[in-house]
Design a protein that fits this description.
By secondary structure, this protein is of the alpha/beta class. About 35% of the residues lie in helices and about 25% in strands. It has two domains: about 5-175, Rossmann fold, CATH 3.40.50.1950; about 185-390, Rossmann fold (3-Layer(aba) Sandwich). The longest helix has 16 residues, at about 375-390. It is elongated. Bound molecules: ligand PMT.
Length: about 400
């Protein structure tokens, strides 16, 4: 999840920063608010603490980190200052760091967006414009104020840009490094276990490595990630994990979460059949060899293909041991998915359990691509590049 420091300065427009904060959090961004002393004259830190991803910081000293400005500056993917007052712009241009916000601005290599807001006379003052030119020359992004009503009833240039525009600009700037910002991706992983009795199950060799790699890479690309998994593989902090065991549990979890997802990636090895009448007590060896009658499970991927809404992407994996392209293409069409990632699970270095994989990617538009042997993280990055292209960047989406 991308981390954004939201700097708030002392101006009447500080109340609009609350809306910026809420919009960014809603877009799946981790927001760390930093308030100047002036900002707190207009809006309390508690308001931001309640809405942001972590409590608002107000001071260089006395917080949880020994050196908060370097911590914030080094961990930020972007810093946005809204509203940015004439004083803040002057200090930033001059390299003065006498409070937490200005020190953080000097302690970061992340992109910085400033959103000035002040009275027209101040906005047009040569000192302010020269400071902005200096900041622009140094690569700082500036979202110019709008014309409109200002404090005290005056009308003119200097009103803070609309919070929706500020949030959009943050997402646009993040898109370069985090192209899935604001997107929700549901990933499944691992092999399902279908109970025979309370101690035995029908299962398969899936370790969950492929699905967990997809979840971890999707998170790094900025997505909000829900991982529905049967496996106990490492997963990055920030991924929402839903633990399931059987095909039915996986079906229920996927269906409950897929409606609002931008993409669903089914890397799990879901059982096609399950025991029809699992015993509720341990089957005794002394009772002889049991006859286990199987019944089909619900095909989750096919259900997703049927329920797919415009703009949503559904990705399947095809585990094949022969005629890879042919069988995968048949599944692509039958399950009505947008992309099928076919892997040859009979290869010793690909498919189940190992750390590497190679795949043929078949898209619904008829195009295809083939990868070399890759680590599962590398293959995850290839699959997610297709997702990024399909979705068309953050919060945009293909034409529907
Ligand atoms: O977990 P690892 O050890 O890392 O191994 C990775 C993997 C080999 C499991 C993975 O790369 C893979 O191929 N996953 C799909 C396995 C599979 O079930 O393939 P399939 O061809 O039987 O099914 C096709 C698709 O339908 C899959 O996306 C599957 O999730 C889905 N399916 C199948 C049956 C069912 N009842 N519901 C489904 O949704």
């Amino acid at each position: 999840m991308p981390r954004v420091v939201l700097g708030v300065c002392g101006g009447i427009a500080a109340y609009k920063a609350v809306e910026v904060c809420r919009r960014l959090v809603d877009a799946g961004i981790h927001v760390a608010p930093v308030l100047t002393d002036g900002a707190q004259e207009f809006v309390g830190a508690l308001t931001f603490s309640a809405l942001a991803s972590e409590p608002a910081r107000t001071s260089l000293f006395g917080g949880p980190e020994p050196i908060p400005h370097t911590y914030l500056g080094q961990t930020a993917d972007l810093i946005v200052v809204a509203p940015a007052t004439a004083k803040l712009l002057g200090k930033y241009a001059a390299g003065i760091s006498d409070d937490l916000l200005t020190a953080t601005l000097l302690a970061t290599r992340a992109p910085v967006l400033v959103c000035p807001a002040m009275h027209t006379e101040m906005w047009e003052h040569p000192a302010v414009q020269e400071n902005l030119s200096t900041l622009r020359r140094r690569g700082v992004h500036v979202l110019d104020p709008e014309e409109g009503r200002l404090a005290g009833g005056d009308v003119g240039a200097g009103r803070l840009a609309d919070p929706a525009r500020i949030a959009d600009e943050v997402l646009r700037l993040l898109a370069g490094v985090h192209p899935l910002t604001g997107r929700t991706i549901v990933v499944t992983a691992g092999g399902t276990r279908e109970a025979v009795d309370p101690v035995r199950y029908v299962g398969n060799r899936s370790s969950g490595k492929m699905g967990h790699a997809l979840a971890n890479v999707a998170l790094r690309l900025g997505a909000r990630v829900v991982l529905i998994t049967t496996a106990n593989q490492p997963v990055a902090a920030g991924v929402e994990v839903v633990a399931v065991e059987s095909a039915q549990e996986m079906h229920d979890a996927v269906m409950a979460r897929s409606a609002s997802a931008d993409a669903v990636i089914m890397a799990a090895a879901v059982a096609d059949f399950r025991p029809k009448a699992p015993s509720d007590h341990k089957i005794k060896k002394a009772d002889g060899v049991p006859e286990i009658v199987l019944e089909p499970t619900t095909d989750i991927l096919a259900a997703l293909g049927r329920a797919k809404r415009p703009g949503q992407m559904v990705v399947g994996f095809a585990a094949e041991t022969e005629r890879l392209r042919e069988h995968a293409a048949a599944k692509l069409a039958a399950k009505r998915v947008d992309l099928m990632v076919a892997n040859d699970v009979s290869a010793a270095d690909a498919g189940f359990e190992v750390d590497t994989n190679r795949a043929v990617l078949l898209a619904a538009d008829g195009s295809s691509a083939e990868t070399q042997l890759l680590t599962k993280e590398e293959l995850a990055a290839v699959v997610l590049a297709h997702v990024v292209t399909y979705l068309g960047g953050p919060l945009g989406g293909p034409s529907t």
